[in-house]
Amino acid sequence: MKKCFKCKIIKDISEFYKHSQMADGHLNKCKECTKKDTRNNYRNNFEYYKEYDRGRAKLPHRKQRAAQYQREHPEQKKQSIIKYRKLNPEKYKAHNIVNYALRKGEIFKSFCFCGSSKVHAHHEDYSKPLDVKWICPKHHAELHKNYMDNK
């Protein structure tokens, strides 16, 4: 039995996380209080953790593992695509209209403002599917990141 210094409740030792540097080998704060503190810290420092997680996701070994997972679990990727399409029908329809117009020769790709010829179609308004800006992947990602940050 041990007393949590946070909630002051005496609990079984199994209700405390192990911690090798403590005299009895367990943290002095119970698991519930630790979880609560962790959640509050995450909420209070959300921007920091968002940037931290984005940075971790871009590490080479993590990108490699994600690609490997997608190759090994094609059904999971397929389900993700289906879910995205159901959640974003207007976007999906606009993307299809742009691709069809490109194949038919009704619209043509142009260069990004940086001069890159590898471009994505960016929609400002999905209700106007053929009204697109041609932007390279780098600037397209920055545009969406700025949009999400301002939301």
- Number of continuous helical runs: 6
Largest beta sheet: strand ordering: 1-2
Task: Sum up the overall morphology in one term.
Answer: elongated
- State the low-pLDDT regions, or none: none
CATH-defined architecture of the domain at 2-44: 2-Layer Sandwich
Helix amount: 40-55%
Structural class, please? alpha+beta
Instruction: Report the strand count.
Output: 6
Do you know the CATH topology of the domain at 2-44? Wheat Germ Agglutinin (Isolectin 2), domain 1
Largest sheet: 2 strands, antiparallel
Mean pLDDT: 94
The N- to C-terminal Cα distance equals 48 Å
Into which percentage range does the β-strand content fall?
Answer: 5-15%
**The CATH C-level class name of the domain at 2-44:** Alpha Beta
Radius of gyration over alpha carbons? 24 Å
Order of helices and strands: EEEEHHHHHEEH
Short description:
The chain is α+β, with helices and mostly antiparallel strands and 151 residues long. It has helices at residues 31-44, 46-57, 60-72, 74-87, 89-104, 137-149; strands at residues 2-3, 10-11, 16-18, 26-30, 120-123, 132-135.
Structure characteristics:
two-stranded antiparallel ribbon; two-stranded antiparallel sheet; 151 residues; Wheat Germ Agglutinin (Isolectin 2), domain 1; alpha+beta
Question: How would you describe this structure to a colleague?
Answer:
The chain is α+β, with helices and mostly antiparallel strands. It has a domain at 2-44: Wheat Germ Agglutinin (Isolectin 2), domain 1, CATH 3.30.60. The protein is 54% helix and 13% strand. The protein has six helices and six strands, in the order ββββαααααββα. It has helices at residues 31-44, 46-57, 60-72, 74-87, 89-104, 137-149, and strands at 2-3, 10-11, 16-18, 26-30, 120-123, 132-135. The strands form three sheets. Strands 1-2 form a two-stranded antiparallel sheet. It has a two-stranded antiparallel sheet with strand order 3-4. It has a two-stranded antiparallel sheet with strand order 5-6. The longest helix is centred in the middle third of the chain and has 16 residues, at 89-104.
